[in-house]
């Protein structure tokens, strides 16, 4: 059986999709009755077990490990000369292309993209798509496919921005510092490059990935927030001070004295279940917990176990999320005699499907 399709860079080509079908048929034939098999995609690397249907989806999305050309884990017989070589192949870490990683991020952020890929050869009813969401998806896809500059094979516009923004966050770079180096990089590259000129424009490109934040005006002394029913107020209800700054001529300008950035919780919890590599971790406490005397997860604490007994119906579904309140470094009573760092479970609980 030819394995040339494994090295085909076009995952949507007939050769690649037909190769996946051949592999799935091979796995079914050599593992009769099996519902789960090892997944040979570059992310699972033959270490995770998935349903046969999900394996086919993973191979379209993540590609198969290029070095895995002898399917010994699925029943293919090896000769003596190739057995040692195959052993070495299985232990090789997969090399993930940054551009493929960015495409994975886009597909994770837009659920309809992965759904359409998974069922493109079936007769299922297509998932309804919001026009604004699809427009964001097309913009991101365009930036993911457009070269950073002509004949640049290593980076697309989106890949470059993601890499630079990751470094900014990892090394706590200020916006001014980031703008400076972004300008330097832009001058270093060919003149017709598409690198954004500053942090603001780079952020706009990434806005389509979601997980943004809301700006809520606040009084500088933290008396109140200008939010919800108080959103239209111009003065504080407690101290009667203006929420906007004053110029040297004592004229009010529409610049708030203080802004609070609120990060909505529900979209972030939902994103954890949209990403394939974090969705499994979110259910670890139910599916992979080790019951011994080692404290390795909040599920090993007495508070968690007591919660399970009190709310047994909620605890039965591993997808349900428990929100905890951490008080590390915060002392509301101004005294050192109170133990800090207590982790208490809150009854603010939600199910991601209904959130």
TrEMBL record:
Domain of life assignment: Eukaryota
Pfam families in the cross-refs: Transpos_assoc, Transposase_21
Q: Do you know which InterPro entries this protein is assigned to?
A: Transpos_assoc, Transposase_21
Q: Using the record's annotation, list all stretches that form the Transposase-associated domain.
A: 3-76
* Protein name, per record: Transposase-associated domain-containing protein
Q: What is the lineage of its organism?
A: Eukaryota, Viridiplantae, Streptophyta, Embryophyta, Tracheophyta
């Amino acid at each position: 059986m030819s394995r040339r399709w494994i090295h085909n860079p076009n995952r949507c080509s007939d050769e690649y999709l037909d190769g996946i079908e051949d592999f799935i048929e091979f796995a079914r034939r050599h593992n009769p009755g099996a519902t789960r098999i090892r997944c040979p995609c570059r992310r699972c690397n033959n270490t995770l077990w998935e349903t046969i249907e999900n394996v086919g989806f993973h191979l379209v999305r993540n590609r198969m490990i290029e070095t895995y050309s002898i399917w010994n884990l699925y029943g293919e017989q090896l000769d003596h000369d190739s057995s040692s070589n195959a052993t070495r192949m299985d232990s090789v870490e997969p090399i993930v292309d940054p551009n493929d990683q960015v495409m994975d991020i886009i597909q994770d952020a837009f659920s309809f993209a992965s759904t359409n890929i998974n069922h493109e050869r079936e007769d299922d009813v297509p998932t309804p798509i919001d026009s604004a969401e699809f427009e964001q998806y097309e913009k991101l896809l365009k930036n993911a496919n457009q070269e950073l500059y002509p004949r640049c094979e290593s980076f697309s516009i989106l890949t470059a921005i993601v890499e630079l923004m990751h470094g900014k966050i990892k090394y706590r770079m200020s916006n001014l510092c980031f703008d400076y180096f972004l300008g330097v990089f832009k001058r270093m590259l060919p003149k017709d490059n598409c690198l954004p000129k500053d942090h603001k424009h780079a952020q706009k490109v990434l806005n389509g990935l979601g997980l943004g934040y809301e700006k809520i005006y606040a009084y500088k002394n933290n008396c109140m927030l200008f939010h919800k029913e108080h959103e239209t107020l111009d003065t504080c209800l407690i101290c009667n001070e203006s929420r906007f700054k004053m110029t040297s001529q004592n004229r009010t300008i529409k610049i708030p004295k203080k802004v609070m950035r609120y990060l909505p919780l529900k979209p972030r919890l939902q994103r954890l279940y949209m990403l394939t590599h974090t969705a499994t971790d979110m259910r670890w406490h139910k599916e992979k917990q080790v019951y011994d005397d080692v404290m390795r997860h909040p599920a090993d604490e007495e508070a968690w176990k007591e919660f399970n007994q009190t709310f047994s119906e909620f605890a039965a579904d591993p997808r349900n999320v428990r929100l905890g309140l951490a008080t590390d470094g915060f002392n509301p009573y101004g005294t050192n005699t109170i133990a800090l760092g207590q982790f208490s479970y809150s009854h603010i609980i939600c199910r991601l499907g209904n959130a």
